[in-house]
Design goal:
It is an enzyme of class 2 (transferase). Helices cover about 20% and strands about 30% of the residues. The chain contains 7 helices and 17 strands.
Length: about 375
């Protein structure tokens, strides 16, 4: 892109968006920064960093020499992202609010606002790439060149119209280079730690946060024979594959068969909402934690239509390598199924299954069901 444009950059206060803005300014574009405030319920809390993040973003804008605007999207975020987040948890699923935030806020509310400001493009600090395929005429979403930082998984719901208006400047370089640039040009946040976790929860304990919004419904924790071995505080507070916080470490039932697996750690294998029981198994590689297939709904395909059935790769959670799979039963009703070459660990309803063809992210959907190799906890 050689033509000089007016580009609005989402400045989060972090180093990635800061360097993105600087790179665009260096390329000669007219750059404007926007800081998005998406959460304000406890803005004075030690766990909410939005005030400091804005100060960091403003300091960055000053160094780079661009204007910055503070925009409040808290109402939209609460309606479009947080409300859905709570509904999913109350239904026993584990949603990914970052995926929804990108689709509803950063590339919808923010994009609309930027267009009203006369922007021709928007830019963010995501580690991903966008390109126009000259053969098909379609915009494609690609993985970032730094495999350890690639964020295409969180962006899989973007549309052709959104990608056509979006730039990802740091998607073309590695994180170590981003840090080097930031230090070289004297950005005040050059060594700022990357944010982790869900934006509105911050660094606070997850269960403590969820306690405010979801009622407790304690029930039994059962093993694979259906025997009660503990008590859970409410199914919404647990996710599949969870090991910590079960309160049953070292538990050994009377009459339990002796063997090498006797003292292996416990993992959440499934939830039975009707009986309000949490099923757990021992051992990381227990068959109840492994699924060769999954079904997903609410599919969103970047090309605007489902890809052809066949061999691809997929991720069922962000921090995992691509897994070889076969796409089957993709249809226009926003549903699809995947069959994996190797069973996937702790495939979790509510999370996203994202499909790849090499480095190209094709889209994905919300996992609704995964058939484990073993079913546990039935009386």
């Amino acid at each position: 892109m050689t033509q000089k444009q007016r580009i609005v950059v989402g400045l989060s206060g972090g180093v990635d968006s800061a360097v993105s803005a600087w790179l665009l300014k260096q390329a000669g574009h007219e750059v404007v920064g926007i800081f998005m405030k998406n959460w304000e319920d406890d803005d004075d809390s030690e766990f909410c960093s939005s005030r400091q993040d804005f100060l960091d973003a403003a300091a960055v804008a000053d160094v780079i020499g661009i204007e910055i605007e503070h925009v409040n999207f808290a109402a939209e975020y609460k309606d479009r992202v947080f409300a859905e987040f709570l509904r999913e948890y109350q239904a026993g699923r584990t949603p990914n609010p970052d995926v929804l935030c990108n689709a509803e806020i950063k590339f919808k509310a923010f994009l609309d606002h930027a267009m009203r400001l006369g922007a021709e493009r928007i830019a963010t600090g995501h580690y991903a790439r966008a390109r126009l395929n000259a053969t098909t005429g379609l915009h494609e979403l690609l993985k970032g060149v730094d495999p350890s930082k690639d964020q295409s998984y969180f962006l899989h719901r973007l549309s052709q119209a959104q990608l056509a208006k979006t730039l990802f400047p740091v998607g073309e370089i590695h994180k170590i280079e981003v840090r080097r640039i930031a230090e070289e040009i004297g950005l005040p946040n050059a060594t700022k730690k990357d944010s982790t976790g869900i934006c509105f929860i911050g660094e606070r304990p997850f269960r403590e946060f969820l306690n405010r919004y979801i009622a407790h419904q304690p029930g039994a924790i059962v093993d694979e024979q259906g025997r009660k071995i503990g008590k859970h505080v409410g199914l919404s507070f647990y996710t599949l594959g969870q090991r910590q916080g079960l309160g049953i470490g070292g538990v050994k039932e009377k009459g339990a068969p002796r063997g090498s697996g006797e003292h292996q750690p416990w993992f959440v294998a499934s939830k039975d909402l009707k009986r309000n029981t949490l099923q757990v198994v021992q051992g990381h590689d227990h068959p109840a934690l492994l699924s060769p297939t999954l079904e997903a709904g609410q599919a969103s395909w970047i090309a605007g239509h489902a890809p052809a059935s066949g061999a691809y790769a997929a991720k069922t959670r962000y921090r995992q390598s691509d897994s070889a799979c076969t796409l089957v039963a993709a249809d226009e009703a926003a549903r699809f199924a995947l069959s994996f070459s190797e069973s996937q660990w702790a495939v979790t309803p509510g999370q996203s299954a994202v499909l790849y063809d090499g480095e190209v992210c094709l889209g994905g959907g919300i996992i609704e069901h995964a058939a484990p190799l073993a079913v546990v906890g039935k009386p």
